[in-house]
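Service request form, structural biology core

Requester: graduate student, group of Dr. S.
Request type: structure prediction, single chain
Budget code: on file
Notes: please return the result as C-alpha cells.

Sequence provided:
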Amino acid sequence: MKRVITRTATLDDLRDLLDRPPRAYLAFDDHEAIAAAPVTFRFIDGHYLVRLDESAGARPGPGDSAMLLVDDGHYSLQLRGLRIRGRLAESGEMLPPPVASTGWLELLPEKIICWDYGSMRKGHAR
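Core staff response, request fulfilled:
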C-alpha cells in the first residue's frame, strides 16, 4: 500500500516561525469589508500577540474576529506556515518587556491550521 504524504504540520514543527516570524499579517472585518495589514507578532507563554503599526488605517479591537497568517518560504516546497482564526482580546498585564507597551492585542484561537510543504519532499526521500 502506498503511503500518503500530506502537508500537515504541528505547531511544534513550526516553533521557529512562532519564535522568529519572518512575516505576519492580520485579516479582520472593517465595517463589513475585509481589511488586512502586516503586524508585529509575538508568541509568549502560549499567547498569540499582535500589534498593528501606528500608521495602519483600519484597526481591529477587542471582541473582533480576526485571522493571523505567519508564513515563510518563496518556492512551492519551501512554503510553511500557520493560520490562526479567533477573537481579539486586550493583552492584559502578562506581557514581559519589551512588549509590555500598549497597542498589543491577544488572538484567542478558535482554529489553527499548520502546513509545511517541505516535509512532503522529505517523505518522498524515504
